[in-house]
Amino acid sequence: MAPQWSDLRIKFKGLFAVVVLPLLGACTTNPATGQQQFTALMSPQQEINVGAQEHENVIKQFGLYNDPALSNYVSEVGRKVTQNTERPDVQYKFHVLDSPITNAFALPGGYIYVSRGLLSLANSESELAAVLGHEAGHITGRHSAERYSRSVVTSLGAAVLAAAIGNDTASQALGVGSDLLIKSYSREQENQADTLGIRYLSRSGYDTKAMTGFLNALQSDSALQSKMNGRSGPGASYFSTHPATSERIAKTVSQAHSFPGQGRVNRDGYLKMVNGLVYGDSAAQGFARGQNFYHTKMGFAFSVPDGFKLVNQPGAVVATDKSGAVVLFDMAGNKDGVDAATYLSQIWMKNDEAPVKVERVTVNGMKAATAGFPGKVNGKPMMIRLMAIEWRPNTFARFQIAIPGGAPSSLVEGLKTASYSFRNLSAKEKSSIRPYTLRVVTAKAGDSVSSLARRMPFKDFNEERFRVLNGLKPGQGLQAGAQYKVVRE
User: How many structural domains are present in the chain?
Assistant: First the structure.
């Protein structure tokens, strides 16, 4: 006979009181926020250990940007901002990540990261200091320790409930909440980090209004990205954990006014440091130029038909068009040392039950194999075409192409040409084809937003990109003699 819910509730309350409530009593007062905080399940030493371990994973995922002068500059600004925090036990360490995404985050133990994408958006040393101060606020606020400790209690409570009712349904349900606690900061934690960041700006002599300035830049960048991607409304920026909401911006305006005086801004000095910064994808990641994708570090290139948009993702390059056709390119290891036909039929498609005819072909002097068969993408019938190219003795270059039913012959032929366009770059091409870079120019009399924006190598949204890049409001003009950022080939 199944137990009654009222009995289970009484049993659960008793178990929860015995196991969980003593932990909830282990709260301390955070010296930075002045608030009671439950961080009992992650000590400061554990924060150091966790940060050091996760730091290695961050470096493997993103890589560090190779510019010692810029890295030293970011570290120096970071040291100024964090020299008077409420946690003198923390040894802060600052790193510039080789990522085009506008991003910054902190790990427990004092690890703070900013991407070169974020550095390209900031317009002064004080705005960089605001970002570093905000991330330092997450560390001094011990937000990671708080999230971790509460998530453990959530999981523990779920386990107690599961034991009480004899199944793991409750554990699975409550595990979702635990997962969310680990992945994102709460609104209160974001506001606390802003407040602490502004405090650290003031203590280090920087302009406290810089926090508001950078949040406005984030909001503008988010809106532009949404517009370019065909979405309405603001998109995600500054990682999904740092939404630049209007409410958050308004709070920073009010808080900045509580600190008297104008602090250090240093716009010109900052622009000098980011002049020459790689913009967008780097040589280490590969980059798109029109309908071509180049990877000058690895030494290959390929092309996609007109009308396809190339997107360089961490694990693959994806190209799509309005018809729904998809081209996915990636690399795969060949640890067994097999030829392309064997790899395609026996390894890549080993779980496919239907027999597939594999054709041996040659792609720009490299042995390859291809096969076509009907399939589905997002529930829609497609013709799938696979291509495996013996690029290196231990590596296959792979194309996966999905062609909608009834596609015109011109599209089919164009996609076939794409898979056969893969080639090795010459030494001259490797040295001459380069990523975009950020360049700082001085506006002359007669220059306008439109005239400077036309110098940038984009096909669309040039004026909008220029305004966001330089923190200019709609309708705001240039000042002769002032410096501005542009993107150059």
Answer: 3
